[in-house]
Amino acid sequence: MSENKTKDRKEQLFSTAKNGYDRISQEDLAAMEAYCRLYRDYLDRGKTERECTLRTVQLAQERGFQPYRTGMDLQPGDKVYVCNRGKSVMLAVIGRKSLAEGARIIAAHIDAPRLDMKPTPLYEDSELAYFKTHYYGGIRKYQWVTIPLELRGVVVLKDGTVVPVALGEGDEPKFVINDLLPHLGAEQNKRPLGEAIPGESLNILLGSRPVGESGEGDRVKLQVMELLHEKYGITEDDFASAELEAVPAGNSTDIGLDASMIGAYGHDDRVCGFAALQGLLDIDVPEHTAVCMLADKEEIGSMGVTGMQSAAFDTFLHDLCESQGVALRRCYEKSFCLSADVTAAYDPNFADVFEKRNAARLNYGVGICKYTGARGKSGSSDACAETVAFVRRVLDEAQVIWQIAELGKVDAGGGGTVAMYMANRNIATLDAGVPVLSMHAPFETVSKLDCYMTYKGCKAVYQA
Ligand code: MN
Ligand code: MN
């Protein structure tokens, strides 16, 4: 073959993955910046699953969504939602077609790795007051020391009163977990990274100023309890029925001289959760009923009443189906679900854990994952080729920039999403989401282009 002919044949036969910036339209570039401002606002207002739920309901109500009531008469274009115990939300826009033709579902999670307070958290040691913590989700413990923290959550009093707690916002004093000084770190330095900071040393510093007379004990603890009582009317016993979460303090920020990325706590998985939500808010009356599921508890296995394994989702879909005289199982078998969750972005600083030909790259668009899991795809629903082909078609037709990837090298580790819990319901499911640098760290990085393309992809799936 001549040189030109070889080139032509390569163009015809080879995959030509290009950086998203070489493909994105001017129109999309402008829309991307506007979208990312909305996303950052959502992140800054939602540091916990409860806060994300609250904000989601507000945004949905502003766009005409009504709380679903049992037995409601639903017409195409009607918009309803169910808030599950203040920690998870399900929203739907009723389609023109019967639910017997299936729904278009996007499921993401709004919980994120963090430090939860133990049931008996408060203590004083050496005239310093602390909270004991129990980490939630897969964290690298060494990343959570010597960074400013906020405390968020609720204390539920014995009479059922829910007292929202937010400490450390804006200019308020923050909290911190201290680490060893390098001068005395000789022994700690010898420990493996995963053991250098034991879980029981993740104690949050709360105060140092004693009250009362010298010689008495627990004077700093008393001061802390006094302040909490003054602000929230709580006593130490009330911690038993509290959900207090320590999260990194501060808001999201643009990253890079070119401001092409966003750094923040909780991209996993609010970056997909917001894309799924905003996508739903922005569609007109869809053909198939469009459902957005924002789940809790993904980071600890999707268990519990607010997790993806909960029957709450089935109840919601059952109710929608029943209003049309459709059996839930008939709806499920015709439905499609995009499990919208983040994936690992290729990081040249840690090249040895990635397989470069099958790694998601920053700015190459929303990353499809046929399977997650560990080792031999264990714990993965492994989508079928037909499902992947469907999504390829939907994304291409909507001019969504996308890529297909694995999490990392086959033997390097692994991870899971809610995909398998949807697939187990007999719903064809595929994972897709934003590639993240430093996933699960207190400060994660994503690219704006990938965020926007995930939103665009979600919108396309709802309308498919
Ligand atoms: Mn996730
Ligand atoms: Mn995660």
Can you characterise this structure?
With 464 residues, the protein is of the alpha/beta class. The chain has two domains: 6-112 and 265-463, Zn peptidases (Aminopeptidase), CATH 3.40.630.10; 114-248, Aminopeptidase i, Domain 2, CATH 2.30.250. Helices cover 29% and strands 24% of the residues. The chain has a nine-stranded mixed beta sheet, sandwiched between helices. The chain has a six-stranded antiparallel beta sheet with strand order 8-7-10-5-6-9, covered by helices on one side. A hairpin with a 5-residue loop joins strand 11 (253-255) and strand 12 (261-264). Helix 2 crosses helix 12 (448-463). The longest helix is centred in the first third of the chain and has 20 residues, at 26-45. The radius of gyration is 24 Å and the shape is globular. The site of one manganese (II) ion has 6 residues, from helix 7.
Query: If you average the pLDDT, what whole number results?
Result: 97
Helix content: 25-40%
Question: What characterizes the major β-sheet?
Answer: 9 strands, mixed
Task: List cofactors, ions and other ligands.
Answer: manganese (II) ion
CATH secondary-structure class of the largest domain: Alpha Beta
* Overall number of strands: 22
CATH fold description of the largest domain: Aminopeptidase
Global outline:
globular
- Given helix and strand content, the structural type is alpha/beta
| CATH architecture descriptor text of the largest domain | 3-Layer(aba) Sandwich
**Distance between the first and last residues' Cα:** 42 Å
What's the helix count? 12
Low-confidence stretches: none
Number of domains: 2
CATH homologous superfamily assignment of the largest domain = Zn peptidases
Rg: 24 Å
Strand content: 15-25%
Q: Record the strand order, biggest sheet.
A: 1-2-3-13-4-14-20-16-18
